[in-house]
């Protein structure tokens, strides 16, 4: 029987026009998104010279961002499912660019805290819309690779977050916010003219969609709540967010204190090892997953699960030794595991949830991840104020990494139970 026009339109082997252009533009947008959120952690010394605050208060600047980000993310995902993903992306980048520019003018901790919260609100709309737009364009053997390439843009933005530390050392932290904020506004104009929406993929994967049906937020949440494996996915992302934000928020400070590095060098070193290997993991994991999934659909879950289980012991070795080699090993293995997970994040969602609610699902995951990340960053600050050593903190991180692998393996087992048995010959 010949394919219908609708099924041809969503063929996994034929990409809509502009599929790779969208990835390129969103790669740049994702870099901007992560640059503006992470540059704070590399400018700690310069900021504290002008705006006195405790370690816990400095941690709260990132925690406030994450908690607001968490609360808004499910709604950001729903907006991307309900309305134009393109317009959601564009409005988000204009908002966060303006807030970044305004941050250069703050004079008090309270003002800083308010703008960090607003930054979290504005950026919560971006990732669900951007990643859902990419999987609308890319299906089959390009889905994980396209998602992985986009995530390398987030990594690039995080990596050059160390630029904030260098600019702060040479000029001032407020100068860094001005120099980075204004060009992002110009890039928003570029996106308006060149980014396009893709035809929605209303079938395939885990769909029960009815074409043309208007979705609602309550229906989306109810559908996700009835999806058993999604709870394991939430648990994994919570743990990954806690460990990941501990590393982003405090590893530059740890390396500066433990190995006598300047704040710029510590920022690039601590985050650089993670982001270089994460980029490798995104590309290799994306290609590997796309190819293996042709014969084993659960490959998208198995690959990152095993990577996390391998990475966990390195954190325990780091906590037990003052040698920098173990710190580097833990960062490298964590980066690879995060890369494998990042490339397969939306493909895993596509395996588990109704296709109408992919962006909402990602928004929910971002929300839980951000809450746990914010708690972890603030908690580490409070532990440092209480004179708790880095050894115990890294032990906690290692347990979290191990549990990431365990919960992903539970997703694998849940999907395996629902597979149709292969007929015997």
Care to describe what's here?
By secondary structure, this protein is mostly helical. The protein has a single domain (16-204, 216-417), classed as Growth Hormone, Chain: A. It contains 17 helices and no strands.
CATH superfamily: MFS general substrate transporter like domains
Number of strands: 0
Cα-atom radius of gyration: 21 Å
Structural class label: mainly alpha
The stretches of 5 or more residues where confidence is low (pLDDT under 50) are: 1-10, 204-212
Shape: globular
Euclidean distance between termini CA atoms: 25 Å
CATH class: Mainly Alpha
Order of helix and strand elements from N to C terminus: HHHHHHHHHHHHHHHHH
User: Strand content of the residues, in percent?
Assistant: under 5%
Helix content: over 70%
Q: Which fold name corresponds to the CATH topology? A: Growth Hormone, Chain: A
Compute the average pLDDT: 81
């Amino acid at each position: 029987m010949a394919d219908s026009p609708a099924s041809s339109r969503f063929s996994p082997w034929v990409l809509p026009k502009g599929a790779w252009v969208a990835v390129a533009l969103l790669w740049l947008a994702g870099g901007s998104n992560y640059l503006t959120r992470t540059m704070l952690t590399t400018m700690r010394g310069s900021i504290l010279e002008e705006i006195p605050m405790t370690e816990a208060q400095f941690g709260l600047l990132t925690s406030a961002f994450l908690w607001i980000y968490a609360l808004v993310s499910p709604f950001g995902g729903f907006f991307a499912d309900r309305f134009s993903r393109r317009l959601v992306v564009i409005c988000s980048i204009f908002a966060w660019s303006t807030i970044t520019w305004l941050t250069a003018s703050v004079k008090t901790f309270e003002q800083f805290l308010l703008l960090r919260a607003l930054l979290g609100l504005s950026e919560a709309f971006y990732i669900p819309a951007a990643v859902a737009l990419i999987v609308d364009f890319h299906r089959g053997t390009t889905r994980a690779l396209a998602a992985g390439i986009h995530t390398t843009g987030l990594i690039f933005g995080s990596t050059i977050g160390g630029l904030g530390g260098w600019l702060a050392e040479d000029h001032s932290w407020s100068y860094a916010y001005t120099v980075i904020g204004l060009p992002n506004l110009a890039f928003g104009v570029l996106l308006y003219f060149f980014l396009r929406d893709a035809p929605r993929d209303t079938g395939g994967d885990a769909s029960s969609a009815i074409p043309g049906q208007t979705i609602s937020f309550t229906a989306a949440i109810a559908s996700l709540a009835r999806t058993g494996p999604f709870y394991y996915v939430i648990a994994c992302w919570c743990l990954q967010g806690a460990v990941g934000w501990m590393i982003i928020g405090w590893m530059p400070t740890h390396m500066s204190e433990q190995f006598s590095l300047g704040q710029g060098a510590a920022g690039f070193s601590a985050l650089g090892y993670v982001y270089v290997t994460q980029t490798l993991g995104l590309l290799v994991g994306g290609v590997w997953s796309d190819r293996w999934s042709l014969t084993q659909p659960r490959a998208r879950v198995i690959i990152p699960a095993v990577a996390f289980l391998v990475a966990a012991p390195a954190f325990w070795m780091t906590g037990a030794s003052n040698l920098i080699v173990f710190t580097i090993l833990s960062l490298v293995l964590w980066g690879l595991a995060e890369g494998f997970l990042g490339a397969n994040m939306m493909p895993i969602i596509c395996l588990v949830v109704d296709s109408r609610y992919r962006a909402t699902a990602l928004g929910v995951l971002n929300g839980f991840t951000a809450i746990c990340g914010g708690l972890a960053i603030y908690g580490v600050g409070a532990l440092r104020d209480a004179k708790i050593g880095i050894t115990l903190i890294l032990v906690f991180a290692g347990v979290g990494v191990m549990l990431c692998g365990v919960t992903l393996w539970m997703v694998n087992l849940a999907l395996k139970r629902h597979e149709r048995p292969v007929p015997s010959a």
